[in-house]
Amino acid sequence: MCGRYASFRDAEDIADELAVARIADDARLLPASWNVAPTDPVRIVVERPERLEGRSTGEITRQLQVARWGLVPSWAKDPGVGARMINARSETLLDKPAFAKPLAVRRCLLPADGYFEWRKLAVPEGAPAGAKVPKQAYWIRPADGDVAALAGLYEFWRDPSKADDDPDRWLVSATVVTRPAATELERIHDRMPAILPRSAWDAWLDPAVGADEALEIVQGAGVALSTVPVSNRVGSVRNNDPGLVEPDPEPLDPDVVRV
Asked: Annotated region Disordered: where (predicted)?
């Protein structure tokens, strides 16, 4: 799964990397985060028609927007359900009503610098029954230092309690698509976010690409990744600083996973 990631590049740098034509004001102002957590506002890259005055729309452009992490289906009674939909398994995208339609028409990329995962370790010998299972946090990012473009889906939810002219009546939310972990990463966790290579970005974002082809993209080749054991400080949302991605000089893991 993907429950924490980091996104600390400047909005302009992201726009340059992903050939974004327009940056929304809130996306430009969103601060860097080394500990993005569920329900946080996150940047997403989408291809949508430009909004013009009135109700008309212009040509399709690539945009950097903001969404809440945790997809809220359009038919949900309240946005709270989003906290349980931060991830979408690639194997069942077409089977889940909440994800099938976005897969066909509302795909996005969540630009990140990497993500965090926890490896469960063996309970020490002699530990009391019911002792907490120790875990080692890992920082996982593209081996070449490139942006990690997480495959995602997004959705619009209309708040029925707000007036038609209320600018906050629409909530945009997103989920990260996950896939089985690559062989070398299985020792850390059996799932990982689908990080798309540059060659797949255009097709994934293209509204003309259908669900079946999109599914092939997200289940196709990924990118080479590297791993670094880091402090378990990342487990608390109160911690958000560059130190979270620094190597742990004394990792708990006796058999550090190096990729």
From this structure: 236-259
Query: What is d(CA 182, CA 192) in angstroms, rounded to the nearest whole number?
Result: 8
CA separation for the pair 18, 64 (Å, rounded):
9
- Cβ-Cβ contacts under 8 Å for 241 (sequence gap 6 or more): 34
What CA–CA distance (Å, rounded) separates 93 from 156?
Answer: 18
Q: Say if residues 176 and 193 touch (Cβ distance below 8 Å).
A: yes
3-state helix vs strand vs coil in the chain, percent to 5: 20, 35, 45
Q: How would you label 76-85 residue by residue, b for 16+ Cβ within 10 Å and e otherwise?
A: beebebbeeb
Residues 146 and 114: beta-carbon distance below 8 Å = no
Q: Which CATH number fits domain 4-245: 1.10.150.910, 3.90.1680.10, 3.30.110.40, 2.60.40.10?
A: 3.90.1680.10
The per-residue pLDDT for range 38-91, each reduced to its tens digit, is 999 999 999 998 776 655 577 899 999 999 999 999 999 989 999 999 999 999
Domain residue limits, the chain: 4-245
